[in-house]
Amino acid sequence: xxxxxGPLGIIAGSGALPRRLVENCRAAGRPVxxxxxxxxxxxxxxADVPHAWCRIGAAAxxxxxxxxxxxxDLVLAGGVRRPSLTALLPDWxxxxxxxxxxxRALGDDGLLSAIVKELEREGFRVVGADDILGPDNLMPVxxxxxxxxxxxxxxxxxxxxxxxxxxxALDIGQAVIVQQGLVLGVEAAEGTDELLRRCVALRREGPxxxxxxxxxxxxxxxxxxxxxxxxxxALAAASGLRGIAAEAGMTLVIDRAELVRAADExxxxxxxxxxx
Length: 276
Prior knowledge:
37% of the residues lie in helices and 19% in strands. By secondary structure, it is an alpha/beta fold. The two termini are 27 Å apart.
């Protein structure tokens, strides 16, 4: 995708993805402006780059900062925990938006789609993280690394994929953990990292389970692609899982070479599976 003349605007949540976007732009000689969300973004994300911190509910300030820094292309990257309206403390601009779209009536993907449309109405061109990082950062079909699932793990993957499709159709989550045919946990508002932590106490004796991540049907891919990275591998290993399966062509793989090394050392398989 052709870059605009101005800096790339990055609305940054948690995790490694926002910083990888910064580093990619720096290597390409493209300026960036990072709008770091308070309580979500890491300090390392904004190190040595033009940035500002802003709370999620301050929509008017968000838009003013982006316009003031000549942002035209904009990417939403990183995890964001969805707060209640009470905790959100929306300013007048956010309150007007939520009154129009119905904050409580929308699932996470529905809300993200509405936010993307609102940003486009404000004149921004919203792009996906994969447009910036390139297609090499998407999960391929097949194995990454030297470990492979056995027949029992393949059966767990297939079962988990059916469940994730059902969850996605209801705009609930992108991930599920299955062990020996038993669903240990499904992703909801807590996100994948907390799902993995929660399932530590739920694992059964015997061969470990699998984590499966897939995109929701009709998902707004520019704002919320399924993503795996080094932290996913570390938490999966700590949870006693045997491997990770992610939808090929849809899932972002952050720090791929390091992820493969970590998975190989932990004895985990990582595999890209077709979504249909």
